[in-house]
Here is the input.
Amino acid sequence: MKEKRRKNPKDSIFTILYPGASLFWIDGKAETAVNTQSSLITRVGEPFVAGRSGSLSAQIVADVRDALFDKRLRSGDPIGTEKDLAARYDVSRIVARDALRTLQALGIAEIRMGKGGGARVARGNPRLFAEALAVQLDLAGVSAAEVMDAQRAVEALAAELAAEHATPADHARLKRLLAEAESLINDADAYTRSCRDFHLAITEASHNRVLVVQFISLNHISWPSHNRTLTPEVSRRVLTVHKELAELIEMRDAAGARRLMDDHVKMIRARRVSERDHAHDAGCC
Here is the structure.
């Protein structure tokens, strides 16, 4: 893609023109003409400023990200090859390559090598980043109380929405998990995994993907792989609450499901915080 540059003698600002779009400056503001078939990613209202390669690479990344959020780019749209970006931004191929690698690491771009290759906007898979978010929260040193407060908000809303949106398949899944949990009362580790699956099933029954990703991310931090303190008596109490939650969801009692889940996670929070404070591993509920 060949880029042409013309200097505006009146205000000494460059005008940038390339196939499919033009960006020009009037009274210090950017105006654009865009062909929707092009992969235009240059931001409106902000000039492309030359500088260090790191800064240029970061600006390319920001431009693509902003175009995605502004719906000027969608999943599957071409971003271009390394050569295309270098020409479009008048930068070296090293800078363009660094930008593409960053876009790929962020999950924004999918890059194909060889003939007909190049970068395209990736197809979304939010679950891929649930673990990455959990890692960053853990590295930031978030407390057990912070995690559980967020989890309480997520799960209470998820239970409410599940009561409103759950399908017959969702109800059948909850019943199947309850039966499974009942058979695992005396196996603490397996019961803990079953509890986790039940809470996830309720969140997925909300049919809200944002809540599901948040739940998965938080559970990477808060949910144990091994439980030393869970007893059969505690397991039975938990199972009773889970059965009541499933019944409220099936009855479409959104307020009741939210209220019970809120109380349930509040109790989990108290236990988890206490166990973290005493350096113990926690279990479901």
Observations:
- The longest strand covers residues 21-26.
- DSSP finds ten helices and seven strands in the chain.
- Strands lie at 4-7, 14-18, 21-26, 29-34, 78-80, 109-112, 118-121.
- The chain has two domains: 4-123, 128-277.
